[in-house]
Amino acid sequence: MQAAKRGYEAWLRRSLMLSSFVILPMLSGFFSAACGEVPNSPHALEAGRVQEDYNALLDSLATQPLENRLAALQFFLHRHPNCAAAYARLLECYFGQNQLSHAEAFFDSISKTPQHAVLGSWMLAKVFVKQERIESARAAFTRALVVAPPSLLLLKDFTEFCQRNRARLDPQALIAATIPRREDRQSAKALLSYHHQDYAHALEFFQKQWVQSPENLALLQLLADCLLQMRRNLEAAAILRKGLAQAGREKDFAAQAWFLTSLGLLKQREGIFDRAQYQNAESFYQSAYALAARYDDA
């Protein structure tokens, strides 16, 4: 149980960053895998193969030294420039070795090429956030946001940046000035509410979006987290199980681990009143730990 709980805690620290960088959903529809192609594009059917390639890459990284991991991830990005998870994993490798200057140089370079403009600028912004270079981060986020309609996760990172730096930046004004499309600005404002812990307002917006995109894993995660924060446990459990099933269909083990750990948290909460629920929590934690360990070991 303790090992599983440690896996759970480690996973939550990473996955709610990731957010889930783990996935790259678009607001209008989520592609079928964490490393899939842009939704509704002619290449959407390739998404499953890209996800399988990425999972195989993670398995191979576990036995390689750091320099080989960096090279393998960089090569993968050139083959699959829309795979947000690979960008995030590369960024984590750089951060883990405190190679911020190398990360800045790499992402700055690829962000200048059309196929990497959005994700390269997004990761570059996160490097600048890590370095506390606020104006540089704002400029990099702006480049990522204007190239193409932004993903929900890019908007999530951008609005979190705005919220954390609200003493120096006016989040509402920055959203109005930076995000071209009205519907994306509405999403950004809902995400500001989420970061401000106004979960009821955020939930109302996310529920409307989910009706249009019921298989969108990012929306399912946000919905579930809002419901968990609001202690609406039965509704949260239903959303978490939908998300777990969808992540399984997409063979996205990172998202599966997120939903499993969240179900474990919910069952642990219920165990205060029903001790038998602790056994359910343990099984969820152990399943999540196995998946998280596979990811972390890489």
Overview features:
71% helix; mainly alpha; 15 helices; 298 residues
Describe how the helices and strands are arranged.
Blueprint: H1 2-15, H2 47-61, H3 66-79, H4 84-96, H5 100-110, H6 117-130, H7 134-147, H8 152-164, H9 171-178, H10 182-195, H11 199-212, H12 217-229, H13 233-249, H14 253-270, H15 277-297
Would you write up a description of this structure?
The chain is mainly alpha-helical. It has a domain at 99-196. It has helices spanning 2-15, 47-61, 66-79, 84-96, 100-110, 117-130, 134-147, 152-164, 171-178, 182-195, 199-212, 217-229, 233-249, 253-270, 277-297. The chain is globular and about 55 Å long. The model is unreliable at 7-34 and 36-41 (pLDDT under 50).
Q: Give the quaternary arrangement of the chains.
A: single chain
Over all CA atoms, what is the radius of gyration? 18 Å
Work out the helix count: 15
User: Roughly what percent helix?
Assistant: over 70%
Question: How widely separated are the two ends?
Answer: 23 Å
Proportion of beta-strand residues: under 5%
Structural class: mainly alpha
Largest sheet: none
Q: Poorly predicted ranges (pLDDT <50, ≥5 residues)?
A: 7-34, 36-41
In short:
With 298 residues, the protein is mainly alpha-helical.
